[in-house]
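Structure request: G5 domain protein, Microbacterium azadirachtae.
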Amino acid sequence: MPIERMVTMMSPRTGAEVRLTAPRRTLSLSTLRRTPATIAVVAASLLVLAGCGGTAHDPAPETPHAFAAPASAGPSPKATTFETVEVSTSIPFERTTVDDPERDAGVTEIVTPGALGTKVSTYRVTRVDGVEAARTLVGETVTVAPVTEVTAHGTREPQAAAPAPFVAAEPAAQCDPNYADACVPIASDVDCAGGKGNGPAYVQGPVRVVGTDIYDLDRDGDGIGCDK
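Returned structure:
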């Protein structure tokens, strides 16, 4: 196999660098000087390159290809879902007391029974792989209003009873049986207490005549004496 030699020359027209490869014995300096055919070949090659406007270049170096490493297998994504949930709860009722002058003091009575209300709360629930992860309140609605319990408290004071008049007890033998409701003494004369009579005995009326009005205590004849 012949030994090759690389010869670099410059184009006289374009200044381009031309590299020619030929057997060493063909492209030796002594051959270029002494062989007209070789000189003609080289000159023709230069003219062709110059006429085409081309430039001889070394072969482009190969670029190594980059290969992406396969991605490592990570955990699979978790399924996330959303749903709306409604929850019904009870609303406690309030209690209040009002004064009632139509009831005696100290007497109480429930006049309006209390009742629970109902409230519906709406939540947005987030689930990850079927497990609840978050719950957010988005709205509330009162479907049944609670009823306040009302208790009446009596404030009326009872009227004081009038004291009974004091009547001195008299022995039955000293009271005239012609009169009742008061003891009319047995005497020579009996007048109404506080009146104009001069006695000697007096009676605090009124007295009811049940027999004979021997002391003339019933002046108007209505059956009641000492009533005026």
